[in-house]
Amino acid sequence: ADEPLVLGIETSCDETGVGIVHGTTLLADAVASSVDTHARFGGVVPEIASRAHLEAMVPTIERALKTAGISAKDLDGIAVTAGPGLAGALLVGVSAAKAYAYALGKPLYGVNHLASHICVDQLEHGKLPEPTMALLVSGGHSSLLLSSDITSDVRPMGATIDDAAGEAFDKIARVLDLGFPGGPVIDRLAKEGDPAAIAFPRGLSGSRDPAYDFSFSGLKTAVARWIEAKRAAGEDVPVRDVAASFQEAVVDVLTRKAVRACKDEGVDHLMIGGGVAANSRLRALAQERCERAGIRLRVPRPGLCTDNGAMVAALGSEMVARNRPASDLELSADSSLPV
Ligand code: KG4
Ligand code: ZN
What we know:
By secondary structure, the chain is an alpha/beta fold.
């Protein structure tokens, strides 16, 4: 049989994403982002995100269809992020997906946002081996997940107990007046700084701490206090060293725990996804530690790591390929949908 042709809609946060895939081939990945509007507020404002999704939804779907050069009636299914995410934002995507599915008479697939962050890697590196360990790090989540079947069996191993990794990057960038989002700027400045200049704390790294959970709020406070002390003493803040040392503390814990989870579970593939997966030091250290542990590392290109519609289409395509049941038109958004 021919490979499934699926359109995917993602509206869990501030990007209105519509992707179209054929099997594991990416045909279109249209994204409209409201990030510039949120930048003025230093973070995502849910009400603004919902309104922006509403305005961008239909044009973005049309743009994706045009780019893919297909007609909506040729689709084998429509997939949509059902959760987790911002309730109002999710609702826009779910409503649009239901309307198109109903009008076109196509099966509807409500998918999990975290699972689709993992599945997107198939568009770049081919079918994901099962099991695969996944480290998902973004502004909204920081989780270790064990995927034994991407459509039905993704087990949470651990997660952050406070801030997400990306959130920590954004908050430290704010303290340093570097703008929003902070990750890319810190990544860039850190390249010129010394990661060993300041010994910032590694959260939950003690032998009695949970092996796979993360904590970044203590680190955030430690960095903020360190900067305050410098300023109070009338000294210059060595921004590059602070950026490098902070970033090292984050990626050290992330990679160490991810590799440990792989070893403990006997899993020899690790994928890293989410916006923070764009971080150059995270990629380099993960590569180094995976190589040493005999683990194959898979990281999609940055454009596929951040929220997009292609990842939803990728998982939808997998649902069709594996004959998973479609959702009914009663599908609703669930802001805290578990994997
Ligand atoms: O996945 P994403 O686009 O949106 C969600 O949060 O779901 O991730 C955005 C997050 C932001 O916190 C941003 O600062 C962070 O990813 N980020 C980075 C880098 N690029 C983006 N963090 C560290 N290094 C980067 N190069
Ligand atoms: Zn995400």
